[in-house]
Amino acid sequence: MLSYFQGFHDIVQVFLLVLGADDAPASVSHLSLLRIRDFMLPSLSASLAHLRLLPSILQAEDANLCHHLSQTQPFFALAATICLYAHDIEEYGDIARLFDFLLAHGAVVSLYFFAVIVLSRREELFDIPADEPEMLHSVLSKLPKPLDLEALISDT
Questions:
Q1: Do 9 and 1 touch, CB atoms closer than 8 A?
Q2: Is 0.70 topped by the overall pTM?
Q3: Residue 30: is its pLDDT beyond 90?
Q4: How far is residue 30's CA from residue 34's CA, in Å, rounded to a whole number?
Q5: How far is it, in rounded angstroms, from Cα 105 to Cα 113?
Q6: Residue-wise over 93-112: b if at least 16 C-beta within 10 A, else e?
Q7: What is the pLDDT of residue 1?
Q8: Is the dihedral of CA 2, 5, 114, 69 positive or negative?
Q9: Counting Cβ atoms within 10 Å, is residue 114 exposed (0-12), middle (13-18) or buried (19+)?
């Protein structure tokens, strides 16, 4: 049985805006069963397993940054990745473009996209001491503004 999660309505809203009321329900159903099912389970354990991939992705790309963030659990990526960024990106064209990108690739691309966002903030993150994981978490849990969407997509 699938359950509602905070942010699911943001995903549905994007589908309604892009596809319309007649076509969105079937697409949302398909997405729910085949793409975001792990986020809709009664427990967060599957969602957290996804997040635990993030340090490995960061380690492969930038070991120093990964070490700097090592006292911070990757829970900062939860909200953005489970709702496919629909809660954070407000411009219709931007979220439609990002959904095109995310849905054209495997489900894990949402996490790789978040890793690219983290990597793009390298200098900002190194300005925050590693022994302040709460501050790092706070910064990482918010998407940077402005968000250079095309550059991030290109780097993913």
A1: no
A2: yes
A3: yes
A4: 6
A5: 11
A6: eebeebbebbeeeebebbbb
A7: 85
A8: negative
A9: buried
